[in-house]
Amino acid sequence: MPQNDAETNLLLIGATGYIGGGVLSRLLGDGRSATFHVTTLLRNQQKARDLEPFGVHAVVGSLDNTDLLTHLAKESDIVIECADADHLQSTKAILAGLKERHKATGKVPSLIHTSGTGVLVDNAAGMFSTDTVYYDDDLEQLDKISPDQPHREVDLIVIDADKEGYVNAYLILPSTIYGLANGPLVDAGIMNPQSQQIPALILASLSRKRAGMIGEGKNIWNNVQIDDIVHLYEVIWDAILTGKKIGHGKEGYYFGENGEHRLHDVGKAIGKALKELRIAETDEPSTFTKEELDLFFSGSESLGTNSRCRGRRARAIGWNPKKTTEDMLASVKPEVQYMLTRD
Fold first, then answer.
1. Eight-state DSSP code of residue 127
2. pLDDT tens across 110-165, in order?
3. How confident is the model at residue 343, as a pLDDT?
4. Is residue 160 classed as helix, strand or coil in its secondary structure?
5. What is the C-alpha to C-alpha distance for residues 255 and 258, in angstroms, rounded to an integer?
6. What is the CB neighbour count within 10 angstroms for residue 65?
7. What DSSP assignment string belongs to 1-12?
8. What is the model's pLDDT at position 342?
9. Element (H or E) spanning 67, and its range?
């Protein structure tokens, strides 16, 4: 791996997304950014042009362009994948390129792969909570996660590649991410400023003019603020660049969480915002009907699952998240107000 005074080739996948844009912003603000050669893969030609003033090399393509991904990864010291936790073929293509780089240079490149705590979910459908809590430093517990769980198929091929020795792989698993992103990339219209889970609930609630939830909203998820989760990526790439030894592969799971909530809590916060804005008559959330689940969530009850975890390994390497569940609930009304300004 290049030293601090040498150029480091970084490939970022998903740079216009919520997480990826935050990661790119932090990369550009890193004190070593003058030594970074950052390449991104974008589907949008205009956004590729918009990134040029930021000193980023943008290549137009998609996750389905596997030959291109392999080529780009072959040229990279570090790949940061933030686009799609379940896109198996693109992950295989990236790993193929990193394997070629290892063969050509004799050095071990790094992959920071974005998974998610969705790998821990059950089928609660909002009807019950769970006492099961997963820990990112409990190898025996993590090994027992079923290969049929969401994200798990891709996670396992990343871990297997690390085991082969041609890549050091670090898996970041965010929980429910929240907060409106801001900064130059948002101002330039390059980066998506919103997450997925809470905005999806808000959009459905605005449409029905009442806050909604899956089942009775008894299920529990962890949460993490966008700037806090981006900091976890920074802690890991800093360890890579400075040669600090941290866990990778099977020992490279890093859970992003700093608090937890029941789905009903989020529904209540949305309801409160809607009532204050005179959109709803009550702040109490009601259960989405089957028709509403089909309309707003393609029939999925994933928001009604349980996913409980603790990021002990993440904190052990120096991650120090600041925002808590209280901040998450406070962020709901600004999200509602933002969505009301959209077309």
1. S
2. 999 999 999 999 999 999 999 999 999 999 999 999 999 999 999 999 999 999 99
3. 61
4. helix
5. 10
6. 17
7. ---TTS-EEEEE
8. 84
9. helix 66-74
Tokens 């992950």 locate to 91
pTM exceeds 0.70 = yes
> What is the Cα gyration radius of the chain?
20
* Cross-strand bridge partners of residue 224: 177
10-residue mean pLDDT profile of the chain (343 residues): values are: 67 97 97 96 93 95 97 98 97 98 98 98 98 98 98 98 98 98 96 96 98 98 98 98 97 98 98 98 98 97 98 98 98 97 79
Q: What is the DSSP string of 40-58?
A: EEES-HHHHHHHGGGT-EE
Q: Are 122 and 308 in contact (CB under 8 A)?
A: no
Contact status, residue 336 vs residue 162, Cβ threshold 8 Å? no
CA distance 28 to 22: 10
Neighbour-count burial of 88, counting CB atoms closer than 10 A to its CB (0-12 exposed, 13-18 middle, 19+ buried):
exposed
Q: Where are the beta strands (DSSP E) in the chain?
A: 8-13, 36-42, 57-60, 78-81, 110-114, 134-135, 168-174, 176-178, 212-213, 220-225, 253-256, 260-262, 286-287, 309-310
Question: Tokens representing 110?
Answer: 């790094």
Whole-angstrom distance, CA of residue 95 vs CA of residue 111: 8
pLDDT value, residue 6: 76
Instruction: Give the tokens for residue 116.
Output: 């998610």
- What are 251's two structure tokens? 């020992």
Cα 116 to chain centroid, rounded: 6
